[in-house]
Amino acid sequence: xxxxxxxxxxxxxxxxxxxxxxxxxxxxxxxxxxxxxxxxxxxxxxxxxxxxxxxxxxxxxxxxxxxxxxxxxxxxxxxxxxxxxxxxxxxxxxxxxxxxxxxxxxxxxxxxxxxxxxxxxxxxxxxxxxxxxxxxxxxxxxxxxxxxxxxxxxxxxxxxxxxxxxxxxxxxxxxxxxxxxxxxxxxxxxxxxxxxxxxxxxxxxxxxxxxxxxxxxxxxxxxxxxxxxxxxxxxxxxxxxxxxxxxxxxxxxxxxxxxxxxxxxxxxxxxxxxxxxxxxxxxxxxxxxxxxxxxxxxxxxxxxxxxxxxxxxxxxxxxxxxxxxxxxxxxxxxxxxxxxxxxxxxxxxxxxxxxxxxxxxxxxxxxxxxxxxxxxxxxxxxxxxxxxxxxxxxxxxxxxxxxxxxxxxxxxxxxxxxxxxxxxxxxxxxxxxxxxxxxxxxxxxxxxxxxxxxxxxxxxxxxxxxxxxx
Length: 470
Fold this sequence. Notes:
The protein is of the alpha/beta class. 40% of the residues lie in helices and 19% in strands. The protein contains 16 helices and 20 strands. Strands 3, 4, 5, 6, 7 and 8 form a six-stranded antiparallel β-sheet that branches. A six-stranded mixed β-sheet has the order 9-10-12-15-17-20, sandwiched between helices. Strands 13-16-18-19 form a four-stranded mixed β-sheet. Helix 5 (210-224) runs parallel beside helix 7, helix 7 runs antiparallel to helix 14 and helix 9 crosses helix 10 (336-345). The chain starts with a strand and ends in a 9-residue tail after the last helix.
């Protein structure tokens, strides 16, 4: 990662600094969200510090001494997969280089499609290029020496959806649906370490459709019935959660009904987390969270955020009031005034700000592995605490007092009344905003309710930029 000074030629300015990092087994977008973002932030901080040093001079870019070399832009021809000849490693490399955009383009049954996301299959095989099976929305396809799972796809001019929904209708044969979700595409899994259970949910894009919510709820119920003392919600590696699955909703025959079923399913999950009397719950936000996902984290007893994570605890940019019991959970954590600011101004919340406002209880190291160690230690200390039972009793007492003050169901009913009115109004801003979001249509005009808010935001933001950098 290199920080260049802008000049008249693209990527040819003087160098202010550079950082190297190892590549892991992940797609291009995954690296941008973690390693590249962290390296870029570090370089900017170093550059600002260098400005205070009179002796500092950026070094000129000397191509002959640069560690890399100039390459032409990568095209679809470079990524094209020859399914009969390309080995599994090659197929995976090409798909990762195109994820999450622009995808790998190819023709299937005379239709142009784009493929996204890949997992290696180790047991299934078939004729090279043949589709073998489906599992959990993914499709297994044979390579020259094995097989891979394709996670998502879209038709030309269409939107990104689970691969099976896009590709199976194009095939001339039915594919076996694996009764048990294939291990490579197991998007929900549990790791048990002593008295602590870690629940991972790796959903592409961080969105959760109705069925994913129901499956996640089943796993959570099983953990509630276990003897684990601490339940940790880990989310995925690229996203913790972003709430409603807007792509699946847009593709539904009845988007309003799908929206309603989706929000009710998420609410069921959040309700289960809130009503967990026998265990302490922890939301471990290793990656970004937004909208309903950012609110769902607050259902846990403790919220831990990795340094560098960005949160978006608001709904208004999508024309929604929101649910997930946010009218109970958010003010309980940050107070009514801050809750109103977060949900109305629609500004991102950095990890340090999350800690300062009370949204988060702890901020751990930005390094992925250090964060993991700090999280494990934190959860083990909770489980081993001599005051564990006392903490559980205090938790139950607080929930009972809150319930007496205002029943949890009432928060849900009030939120869903507003959400239902929006979903089933064909002219609501939500339907336009959702369509523009999934089809990546630039907004030609800012909606009136956000134009009014933007004037407030500008006034509120102005003093921020006068503060010294820290």
